[in-house]
Specification:
The complex is a heterodimer of chains A (411) and B (191). Chain A is of the alpha+beta class and 411 residues long. Chain A has 19 helices and nine strands. Chain A has a three-stranded antiparallel β-sheet. In chain A, strand 7 and strand 8 form a beta hairpin. By secondary structure, chain B is α+β, with helices and mostly antiparallel strands. In chain B, the strands form two sheets. Chain B has a three-stranded antiparallel β-sheet with strand order 3-4-6. A two-stranded antiparallel ribbon of chain B has the order 2-5. Chain B is built from six helices and six strands; from the N terminus they run E-H-H-E-H-E-E-H-E-E-H-H. Chain B has a domain of 133 residues: Alpha-Beta Plaits, CATH 3.30.70. Classes of the chains: A alpha+beta (411), B alpha+beta (191). Strand 6 of chain A pairs parallel with strand 1 of chain B. Bound molecules: iron/sulfur cluster (2 copies).
């Protein structure tokens, strides 16, 4: 956004067309909204001088569904299904972040087992998201093979999610005060088996990409985001860390018991596309490491908070046999989990960056206002600054390296 | 206990600059994968294995005595996030003598499978265990109307599921024991 007046003119297309008239030697080029490199429905209006981009206008909003407004019309638990559809590459991490946000409003104590389950699914979601991110990134740079290896691994992850939550994609796994169900028998064993297999694929990735001169020449020194810019534009997640900023909410503001686990936060040195690749690769390795630790120290206990009587519905067999629990179930479902009045902002380190929920509650079971801080939205805001000066062919690589999801950006 | 790790990078060696090692290791990696077990599934000839608690198509189920379980409390209709369920409550027909004390049953029960997001909330909240998500994962039809499943269709898909509680039989027995007859009116829990 260069000037405020420009923004208020309206459609970005008309602005670029206007710019075209004044500079006849420039060409306006539209990429998207439906284009393979834009990973969804992002539209880029670019002004080109030959092959070099001189100006870029990202246009977003093609996937806007009004999630924030919808939240005001449904109970806290019903909205969990909508968080699935924010960053739809890692729905489990969104579920957890949302539940934690609402719980921090009510100050609910979550049992250890539930915390471990949540941290575990967050890390698995991170693996799933980064595997896709890396695979697609490599594919954008012209390396097709790693994409298929990444998808094979993701298929295994989806099978695990399916067993745990009942669905591969739209998991809706958390509820305020707990999770839907406990981990199934033998599931943890299958998770650790997955963790044993994944490093092989990572090795293949490494062999194919990390020291590959073709890949390096397409990524090194391209799309450099300086430390200052990264901070000024509010970048988060791997994109921020690739610029050398040591900021990870799991380390700096631990939740879900992350302080108990031992892991390293990778940071980059220059903030170019290659650094973003390196950081994501290392994060995958670290996530595997965290998952192993969680599985090894998996605590016993309940997977929901028993104290939160007006928040988490009672167990099913109680509902069926006892009148009091039946009434309680009706109350929680129809009126929503009862929250105190207040405001809360909670951020969690999601695969794409810091996903934040700002909640205003006037009491009762429905939020008065819910604001979602979507990491992809902030991460994309830097395109306008970053793309000018690059060649047109670099756009695919830069977009791939930013690893965004439009479902979350437009929400 | 998190630490920071700086991702150092080494410049490419002379050999790596010739592309050759990469081409060779790349081809070897690909070649090795030729002999690994196949990961693809020849759908629809081969079907994926569906886990136990899979969230497929929501259906209505009957108890082992082939009696309707749903009492038309409309809790599932209320909770359904995309509002896919439509219920018209009705009375229980007097022919079902062993169930007259249940008072209500759905006259119509429709689930719009095009709206349904298979979230499983209906199964989760149902106080009668009357609605269950089956492991059917592929649904198709030619028109929108075909995807609007009515009560008969839902029962046909749902079938009979074992019941551990026989809640209403127990209730009647309890009522008879204290001499209240078969139609007790203690079920006023609906808010
Ligand atoms: S599964 Fe979810 S969307 Fe489908 S009918 Fe049940 S509550 Fe509604
Ligand atoms: S919640 Fe259960 S008993 Fe109530 S209307 Fe729905 S299916 Fe019937």
């Amino acid at each position: 956004m260069s000037r405020i007046e420009e923004v208020s003119i309206g459609d970005a297309a008309s602005r670029s067309a206007a710019a075209d008239e004044t500079k006849p030697d420039r060409m306006a080029l539209n990429v998207g909204p439906s284009h393979p490199t834009t990973h969804g429905v992002l539209r880029l209006i670019m002004e080109l001088d030959g092959d070099v981009i001189t100006k870029c206008d990202p246009v977003i909003g093609y996937l806007h569904r009004g999630d924030e407004k919808i939240a005001e019309n449904m109970t806290y638990n019903q909205f969990v299904t909508f968080t699935d559809r924010l960053d739809y590459i890692s729905p489990l991490a969104n579920n957890v972040a949302y539940a934690l946000a609402v719980e921090s409003l009510a100050d609910i104590e979550i049992p250890e087992r539930c915390q471990a389950i949540r941290a575990l699914v967050c890390e698995l979601a991170r693996l799933s998201s980064h595997m896709l991110g890396l695979g697609v990134y490599a594919m954008d740079a012209g390396a097709w093979t790693p994409f298929f290896y990444a998808f094979t691994e993701r298929e295994k992850l989806y099978t695990l999610f399916e067993e745990l939550t009942g669905a591969r994609f739209t998991t809706s796994y958390t509820r305020i005060g707990g999770v839907v169900r406990d981990v199934p028998d033998g599931w943890l064993g299958r998770v650790s088996k997955f963790c044993d297999d994944l490093p092989n694929t990572l090795r293949d990735f490494d062999k194919l990409l990390t020291r590959n001169r073709i890949f390096l020449e397409r990524t090194e020194g391209i799309g450099v985001i300086s430390r200052e810019d990264a901070l000024a534009y509010g970048l988060t997640g791997p994109n921020l860390r690739a610029s050398g900023v040591d900021f990870d909410l799991r380390k700096d503001r631990p939740y879900c018991g992350y302080e108990k686990y031992d892991f390293e936060v990778p940071i980059g040195t220059t903030g170019d596309c290659y650094d973003r690749y390196l950081v994501r690769m290392e994060e995958v390795r670290q996530s595997v490491h965290i998952v192993r630790q969680i599985v090894d120290s998996f605590p016993d206990g309940l997977w929901y908070s028993e104290e939160a009587k007006k928040i988490f519905p009672p167990p099913k067999d109680k509902i069926l046999t006892s009148m009091e629990e039946l009434i309680q179930n009706f109350m929680i479902v129809t009126e929503g989990p009862q929250m105190p009045e207040g405001e809360v902002y909670f951020e969690a380190e999601n695969p794409k960056g810091a996903l934040g929920f700002f909640l205003v509650s006037k009491g009762g079971g429905v939020p008065y206002r819910l604001k979602i801080r979507a990491p992809s939205f902030c991460n994309l805001s830097i395109l306008e600054k970053m793309l000018p000066g690059h060649m047109l062919t670099d756009v695919t690589v830069i977009l791939g390296s930013l690893d965004f999801v439009m479902g979350e950006c437009d929400r | 206990m998190a630490k920071t790790k700086v991702m150092e990078r080494k410049p490419l060696s002379w050999a790596e600059r010739t592309y050759l090692p990469q081409i060779i290791t790349g081809l070897l990696t690909t070649f090795r994968n030729l002999f690994r077990p196949k990961v693809t599934l020849q759908y629809p000839d081969e079907r994926p294995r569906i886990p136990n608690d899979y969230r497929g198509v929501p259906t209505l189920v009957k108890d082992p005595n082939e009696r309707e379980k749903c009492v038309s409390c409309q809790l599932c209709e209320f909770v359904c996030p995309p509002k896919a369920i439509r219920i018209t409550p009705g009375a229980i027909s007097t022919e079902e003598t062993d169930r007259t004390h249940v008072e209500k049953a759905p006259k119509e029960f429709e689930i719009n499978m095009l709206r349904c997001i298979y979230c499983g909330y209906c199964e989760e909240v149902c106080p009668e265990e009357a609605i269950f998500l089956q492991d059917i994962y592929s649904l198709n039809g030619y028109t929108r109307e075909q995807m609007q499943f009515n009560k008969e269709k839902l029962y046909e898909l749902g079938g009979v599921l074992p019941d551990q509680h026989f809640k209403w039989d127990k209730k009647r027995a309890a009522a008879e024991k204290i001499g209240l007859g078969s139609s007790s009116d203690e079920e006023t829990e609906e808010e």
